[in-house]
Amino acid sequence: MPRPSQPLRPTTIKDVARELDLSVATVSRALTKPKLLRPETVARVRAAVEKLGYRPNLAAQNLKLGTTGIVYVIVPSLSPFFLEIFRGAERAAQEGGYSVVMGHTDRHPDREGEFFDQVSCGRADGVLLVSTAEAEAIVNHKRRLPPTVVVLEAVEGQIFPTVRVDHKKAAFEATNHLIELGHRRIAHITGPARSPMAIHRREGYLAALAAAGIRSGEGSCVPGEFTVASGEVAMASLLSRPKPPTAVFAANDEMAIGAIRVIKDRGLRVPQDVSVMGFDDQRIATIYDPPLSTVRLPTFDLGYSAMVKLRCILAKESYEMDVVLSTTLIQRATTAAPRIPDA
User: Fold this and answer.
1) What is the CATH number of domain 167-297?
2) Angle at alpha carbon of residue 266, lines to 232 and 341, rounded to 5°
3) In whole angstroms, what separates CA 88 from the centre of its chain?
4) pLDDT tens digits, residue range 144-194?
5) Cβ–Cβ contacts within 10 Å for residue 343, how many?
6) What is the rounded (10 degree) CA torsion for 222, 228, 229, 231?
7) pTM value > 0.90
8) Which terminus of the chain is more exposed, N or C, with fewer CB under 10 A?
9) Domain boundaries for CATH 3.40.50.2300 within the chain
10) DSSP state of 283
């Protein structure tokens, strides 16, 4: 009776060394520090690794080095906008031999702090913090902060390595686009009151109105929560005013789409009766009817560049402290000159 076959033993680094008649140390250097060896030796080792199917035990290597090979990407929501930033971070992580894990805070500072605690306890090597829930959550953190790169916006009053955009400048340009079209009654649907990103976009809106001599800025701001539903509620409130706006600048695309829904439901047209400007240029902006005018943020590049910077920090290599990526104003079909010039 034939004996049952035994499970194949995984190929080890010793098998590779035996195949090449090299020391284990030489094979290890060829895989981890190839610049220390001759190119021919490195090529031989890599060919043998491929032939024998050797796969390094990354967990054991990381344990020996005192690392995990894992980075937390902490995001405030699971919207397509933040997922695109995560995708960029994941690409750069893979290129550097890291894995990324997403931590979703739902904009709760306590939850954000829990993820920092996990990294501080050795469950990951570093953090990409994408849009903090509250700056105080970092400032008052009870443990020593792990290596951290802040993505999308700077943290007020703190010095962190950052990859960001200038939200205030971009919001200024978005609002000014509406002003240049001839609008004077321009409303703004804001983001969450404590979100630094939303605060900066609101500041850009107010600065553009002030520069144009329009005094209705503060009174034309209505609160939103970066959701379609909150955009609907805000737009309904604006249309109930004695003099509703002829243009609306929403602090993100989702709220802009919510606003357009209500405008259509009221029998009005976009942009003939009300122009709508978004922010972020999420994928839905191009396929919505009508296609949304908005501000394009380089979401993938933000995540990619931030992960590259964190890799430099972890490797103790030089890096630029603050990197500001460019935004682009995109005019599509939801913005046009007012049908009746604003008084």
Assistant:
1) 3.40.50.2300
2) 100
3) 8
4) 678 999 999 988 777 889 999 999 999 999 999 999 999 999 999 999 988
5) 6
6) 20
7) no
8) N
9) 69-165+299-326, 167-297
10) T
